[in-house]
């Protein structure tokens, strides 16, 4: 299986370049992609992207841009010019922001996948209500996914619990990149809307973002191998 077929994206949430690269050196770029998020990028900057590209990885730069349209378009362009495979913005930044980002990539012929975060997987109904959104997470995800698609984005970040609804609303080819993946009997940590790896694939996730269940495991490679096995031998009904 090459990374082009693998749905797995390992979240390299580490506080230093060295720690992230130690993990990356254990991983096989033919078996997964990697994700660089806010902590690692803020500490190490573009050098981490370069180092991961040098090791053959496709990189999802997960900085979740959210600002006025011109600022977000510039940030998305800067990310794409570093050659990342995927970059994201917050869908709640609205139509003009997402369209500006899309147009900036198109104008510069940059082929990076642009996706939008819908509702963070750490949030549930009460969290949405506190920030003034009186919808169920599922309804809000559907609404923002439809908007992101109308703005020309390639997919969304959502929980795998909403992947099926997003597939119905936006189609098979629209990417459903889903964090909040937790193998059976593992801690949910700060995640709230979770599914197992095989449950997520069965629900229609196109990509599974997995961090702590691998990176904090006693034996990260054994944890990854267990997840891969669970994806090829799915339990009945999945
Ligand atoms: O809604 C979202 C959007 C992004 N994330 C990111 O995914 C990983 C998940 O890590 P775990 O350790 O597997 O929980 C992390 O980098 C988040 O920033 C998310 O969890 N939910």
What does this molecule look like?
The chain has a single domain, classed as Aldolase class I (TIM Barrel, Alpha-Beta Barrel). An 8-stranded parallel beta barrel has the order 1-2-3-4-5-6-7-8, surrounded by 7 helices. It has 11 helices and 8 strands. The chain starts with 7 loop residues before the first strand and ends in a 6-residue tail after the last helix. Helix 1 links the parallel strand 1 and strand 2. Helix 1 packs parallel to helix 3, helix 4 packs parallel to helix 5 and helix 7 packs parallel to helix 8. The mean pLDDT is 96. The chain is of the alpha/beta class and 238 residues long. The structure holds the ligand O=c1ccn([C@@H]2O[C@H](COP(=O)(O)O)[C@@H](O)[C@H]2O)c(=O)[nH]1. The ligand O=c1ccn([C@@H]2O[C@H](COP(=O)(O)O)[C@@H](O)[C@H]2O)c(=O)[nH]1 binds next to strand 8 and helix 10.
List the helices and strands and how they pair.
Elements: E1 8-11, H1 17-26, E2 33-36, H2 38-44, H3 46-54, E3 59-65, H4 69-81, E4 86-90, H5 95-107, E5 113-117, H6 125-130, H7 137-150, E6 155-157, H8 163-170, E7 175-178, H9 197-203, E8 207-210, H10 212-215, H11 220-232
Parallel strand pairs: 1-2, 1-8, 2-3, 3-4, 4-5, 5-6, 6-7, 7-8
């Amino acid at each position: 299986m090459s990374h082009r077929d693998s749905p797995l994206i390992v979240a390299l949430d580490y506080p230093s370049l060295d720690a992230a690269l130690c993990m990356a050196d254990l991983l096989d770029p033919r078996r997964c992609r990697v994700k660089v998020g806010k902590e690692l990028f803020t500490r190490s900057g573009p050098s981490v992207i370069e180092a991961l590209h040098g090791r053959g990885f496709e990189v999802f730069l997960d900085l979740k841009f959210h600002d006025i349209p011109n600022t977000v378009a510039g940030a998305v362009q800067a990310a794409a010019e570093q050659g990342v495979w995927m970059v994201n913005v917050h869908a709640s930044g609205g139509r003009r922001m997402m369209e500006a980002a899309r147009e900036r990539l198109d104008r510069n012929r940059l082929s990076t996948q642009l996706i939008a975060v819908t509702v963070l997987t750490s949030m549930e109904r009460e969290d949405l209500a506190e920030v003034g959104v009186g919808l169920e997470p599922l309804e809000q995800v559907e609404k923002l996914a439809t908007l992101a698609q109308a703005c020309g984005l390639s997919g969304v970040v959502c929980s795998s619990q909403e992947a099926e609804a997003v597939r119905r609303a936006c189609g098979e080819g629209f990417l459903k990149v889903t964090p909040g993946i937790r193998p059976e009997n593992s801690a949910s940590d700060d995640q709230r809307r979770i599914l197992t790896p095989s449950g997520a694939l069965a629900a229609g996730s196109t990509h599974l973002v997995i961090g702590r269940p691998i990176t904090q495991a006693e034996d990260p490679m054994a944890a990854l191998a267990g997840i891969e096995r669970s994806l090829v031998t799915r339990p009945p009904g999945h």
